Amino acid sequence: MSMAFTFELVSPERLLVSREVDSVVVPAAEGDMTAMPNHAPTMSALRAGMVTVETGGDKEQFVVLGGFADVQPDSCTILAETAATPGDFDRDLLTSRIEEAQTRLKETSDDDERSELEEVLGSLTTLNEQILPA
User: Fold this and answer.
1) Which of 3, 7, 43, 80 has a beta carbon 3.0–4.6 Å from 67's, enabling a disulfide?
2) Which residues form a coiled coil (predicted)?
3) Angle made by CA atoms 79, 129, 56, in degrees to the nearest 5
4) Which pLDDT band, with edges at 50, 70 and 90, does 1 fall under?
5) Per-residue pLDDT averaged across 37-52, rounded?
6) Could you report the per-residue pLDDT of 19-34, keeping only the tens digit for each?
7) Distance between CA atoms of 95 and 123, rounded to whole angstroms?
8) 22 with 6: CB under 8 angstroms?
9) Cα–Cα distance measured from residue 133 to residue 117, given in angstroms and rounded to the nearest whole number
10) Which CATH number is 5-84 given?
């Protein structure tokens, strides 16, 4: 018998998910993180990416653009800046963010800002490739 824990995905517009799940793969700022029951308490910033929720062998994905994940032994809560299912996601918003990052990257001469923008641009570009229809 698998253990489950509570998962909630919240955006400023609405509560997208609130249910018991087996695991959640979170696009944490430092890399993907799998949250499961009895996980050590962890708080992480999110990068643009896909959240994958697994329940009873079924997987469901959500697109997030930034935010925070709060993982506790009995729960995982994601407070996302923007979140949606891949089919409902505003691709124009993603294109706009990519263009903005490219423009800022061309304009900056600060090495730290350049590195940060390159990471952001990489995450956004990867996400764009993941949600494009096949």
Assistant:
1) 80
2) 91-118
3) 55
4) very low
5) 95
6) 999 999 999 999 999 9
7) 12
8) no
9) 26
10) 2.60.15.10
